[in-house]
Amino acid sequence: MLDKNIDLSGKRVIVTGAAGFIGSNLCMELIKRYSDIQILGIDNVNDYYDVGIKKDRLKRIAEILGDKVGTAGEYGVSETIGDSRFVFIKGNIADRAVIDKAFDEFKPEVVVNLAAQAGVRYSIENPDAYIEANLIGFYNILEACRHSYDSQKASDDYKGVEHLVYASSSSVYGSNKKIPYSTDDKVDNPVSLYAATKKSNELLAHAYTKLYGIPSTGLRFFTVYGPAGRPDMAYFGFTNKLVKGETIKIFNFGNCKRDFTYVDDIVEGVINVMEKAPDENENGVRYKVYNIGNNDPVNLLDFVDILQQELISAGVLPKDYDFEAHKELVPMQPGDVEVTYADVTPLQQDFGFKPNTPLREGLRKFAKWYKEYYG
C-alpha cells in the first residue's frame, strides 16, 4: 500500500458537480469524516434530469450540517465563501469567471472535478453540451489549478493545489476486446463522443501535470448506481417505466454485461485517492489513472431480474406484476458496448481497497429509497 501524503483534516476542497449523484455523496461523507474540512461545491443544477433530485441532494448536505450551515441560500446551504463548512455556488464550470473567482477567493488545496455532461446516448443528440462541460469546463479547472501556483497568489499558508482528482469513465475503453479492462490497455478507439471527451480529459491532465506540475489522478468509474441516483441510468429509468406500466427495452437482446458499482464504494475510492497525490512516475510526471468498478460484471437480464424482485419487496411494484409483458429485447444502441469489466488490481494494491457491495444489496437500498421518495 502507498503511504498517504495529504491529510484532509482542515483542508479546503473544491468539489464540482456537488449537486450530482457522486458529488453530493462525496460531500456528505467528507463532512461526516472531517469536522474541520471546508468544501466549496460548484454545480449549475441543469435540467438534464429532474432538478428536484439535485435540490434534494443539496438539502441532505444541509441537514448533515445542521446549525453549522450559516446563511442558507436557495438550496438550504450557505452561498457565501467562508461562511460554512460547505458553501455552494450555482455556476457553470465552462464559465471561466466563475471558476477563477472561486479559486481566487477560496484557495483550494484539493480539487475534485466531477462536473460533466454525462450519458452516452445523449452525446449523440446534443454534442454541444459535452464540448462545453467536459472540454471547456475541464480546461478551466486545469487553468485555475495551474495559476494557483502563481507567486502573487501563493503565500506562507497557501502553496496552491496539492492534488487534482477528476472523473473519467469506463466508456474510454470503447470496443476493447480484452477483459477485464486495465488502465494499461490502449484506449484510442472511443465509440461515443462522451467517451472521447473523457479520454481527452486524461490527455489534458497529463499535459498540464507535465508542464505545470499539477499532481493529478483520473478515476474511470464503472456504471455507478444507488439511492437518489441519475434517472437516465438503466436501473432508475427501468423503474420509472415499470411503475407507469410502460415497456422497458433491454439492448443487444440482453447479451450485455455491466460492472455495476454502488455509489458508497465509489465515494470510498475517491476519498482514498484524494489522500494520496501521485509520486513521480518513470517519466517524471505526478500522474495516475485508476479504475473504480465492482470487478464483477452482471448480465443485463440477471440485473433486471434482481431489480424486479427488490422493487416488489420494497412495495414499489405489486407482487403480481407481469414483468414479461413489460420487457422488450432490442438491438444494440449506437455508442453502447457489450461488456464493461474493471480490473481494480492497482487500486487494491495502492490503497488496500476494492468495491465489494453486492448488486442485490445496492438495488435493495435503491428500491427502498425510491419507495420513500416517490411514495
From TrEMBL:
Residues 13-293 form the NAD-dependent epimerase/dehydratase domain. Keywords: NAD. It comes from the Bacteria. Transmembrane segments: none annotated. The keyword NAD applies. The keyword NAD applies. Pfam families: Epimerase. This is NAD-dependent epimerase/dehydratase.
